Amino acid sequence: MSTGEPHRRVVDGRFELVERLGGGGMGVVWRAHDLALHRDVAVKEVRPSDPDLAEYDPEGARTLRERVLREARALARVHHPNVVTIHHIVDGGEHAYPWIVMELVEGGSLQDRLRQGPMPPAEAARLGREVLAALRAAHAVGIEHRDVKPANVLLRPDGRPVLTDFGIAAVRESAGLTATGAVIGSPDFMAPERVGGKAGGPAADLWSLAMMLYVAVEGDHPLRRGSTLATLAAVLGEDVPAPRRAGPLTPVLGALLVRDPQARPDAAEVDRMLAIAAGQTPSPSSPLRPAAPTSYPLGPPAAPTSYPLAPPVGGATPAVAHTAPTRRAHRARVSVLAGAFGAAALAGVLGWTLLPHLLRDTGDGGGASSAPGVAVSSSASTAPDARQTGRPSTGGATARKADLLDGDGVARTVAKLTAAMGGSKVTSLAVYEEYAIAEAPVHGRPKLYDRYMYRGGDVAAKDGPGGVVMTGTVPVDLRLYDWDAVPALLARAGRTLGVPKPTSRYLLVNPASEVFGTDPSMSVYLSDDYGSAYLRADVHGRVIETHPRDDG
Predict the structure, then answer these.
(1) Are 16 and 37 in contact (CB under 8 A)?
(2) Is 91 a catalytic residue?
(3) Is residue 52 domain-shared with residue 162, that is, in the same domain?
(4) CA distance readout (Å), 266 to 199, 320, 427, 461
(5) Residue 259 belongs to what domain range?
(6) In angstroms, rounded to a whole number, what is the distance separating the alpha carbons of residues 529 and 521?
(7) Fewest CB within 10 angstroms: 84, 231, 460, 463, which?
């Protein structure tokens, strides 16, 4: 960045920065004035959330720069009214991050619009169809967005949406960054396969689009929890509840919000369904054919259900009833049921990118449990106290190891971890029956964390470097918590959460979040083959939220 005068900031001798428009973990966006063409533009410097990346991982920084440049150049070739236009790329050289000069969209974002209240389903469907068109244009040149969310959908003054911030795609694929364990993307809008560490694909962007539309019409997010870790666990282990206000959008959401990406309809079919929901004519490229059945499961169906469509003028509300599942719908149902069991186990070992790390210690399963601390009973019966304590039955066949969640186990675990960390502040703590994981800020480098493990016994130990602290997370002091309240919380969970025979139970410490505007808390989870439920309490153990599982 060059400066002609001390008070002026000019990029590449041409773009004068006027005011900051916003920023996040991937850079800062400015309103700028193009001195050559005399017009206002948006200028973004793309950089990682950790400013020291170039120092401790120069290869990762170089890879990031190259990928950002490559994808920005590819995106510049996408000429579409719903994709933000790339005007210019400023490459400062090997030791600098690039600046991307884009069109300035001044109508605010979809996130700003939703602060005024939910959208009518038909309006959301029309917007969703245009965002889908933007995604299809990007997918056609090999670019996945990976961060579709309301904040990344800008609105022109006439209300037309423009999809922006494709830079996340380059960052997500940077090997130097993913190795740190940081979450790249917005956890509550990420598809389950991406949360689970898989490559994703265009179908993952369609999940994110559907989740954005769900939030747009319902007014809240069905899987957002009090901490990033809890949100990621919910995305992996919980079914999306059926919407109540989606009307004609309900079949679209039901078709896309399934865990198996192969069971989701393709973009052409989604466009056809959105057109119907919006009251528009489907595009010639997506010919009308029999509607996909609405039996794609958002959650375990209890009985044949009718989804109301928009009422016709002067008439009663028609309905589309569940039909017999097609082969694809059957595959989706089987996948969701199988995924619910697998995700319940995955949620027990999830800690941003903890899964690959922990599987290194435990192997790929082969027994009753595929992850540490997830005890799957082979007996159909439950011990008399299982409902009251939230503990799974052992069937009396195998002696259990010491349970870190019983009695004073959590207090003892916290003491061991605190001794190993050399302090009591953490950005995350998860306690399972047989082990616990803490993430503690690195001394002198508060944006990074180290990971510590305790498996019972005399000492806890550092378990390797962790990664970058999630934006907005405020480290919490473990001394604030009343750990003696945990057994009572587990007992209450067993009575009230609707999971009578849990195969997994765990405690999550939720630090304060500047992003979600939440205070420190703790959550107790119970899971079985069909999903999970949880309750949240304050640091003193007083329950402030209860989220039982709705089985029907």
Answers:
(1) no
(2) no
(3) no
(4) 17, 21, 39, 47
(5) 107-302+325-349
(6) 27
(7) 463
Residue the block writes with tokens 């002198």: 444
Token representation of residue 431: 């306690």
Computed over every residue of the chain, the mean pLDDT equals 73
Residue ending a domain, among 69, 88, 104, is 104
Catalytic residue among 50, 147, 271, 463: 147
Average pLDDT of the residues in 237-262: 92
In angstroms, the CA 361 to CA 347 distance is 17
Is 44 annotated to bind ligand? yes
Radius of gyration of the chain (CA): 25
On whether both 250 and 374 belong to a single domain, the answer is: no
Note if the pTM is more than 0.70.
no
- 350 CA to centre of own chain: 12
Contacts of 34 (CB under 8 A, 6+ apart): 14, 15, 40, 41, 87, 101
Q: 188 and 258 in one domain?
A: yes
Domain's final residue, options 89, 104, 119: 104
Which residues are within 8 A (CB) of 193 and not within 5 positions of it... i.e. 6 or more apart?
199, 200, 204, 259, 261
Region of 352 on the Ramachandran plot (φ > 0 left; ψ -120 to 50 alpha; else beta): left
SS (HEC) of 284-310: CCCCCCCCCCCCCCCCCCCCCCEEECC
Rounded to whole angstroms, the Cα distance separating 144 from 136 reads 9
Domain count, the chain: 3
pLDDT of residue 494: 93
Q: Give the tens place of pLDDT for each residue, 62-104.
A: 777 777 777 677 777 778 899 988 888 887 666 667 888 989 9
Nearest alpha carbon to residue 423 among 475, 360, 356:
475
Residues 21 and 133 grouped into a single domain: no
Poorest-pLDDT segment among 145-154, 179-188, 279-288, 289-298: 289-298
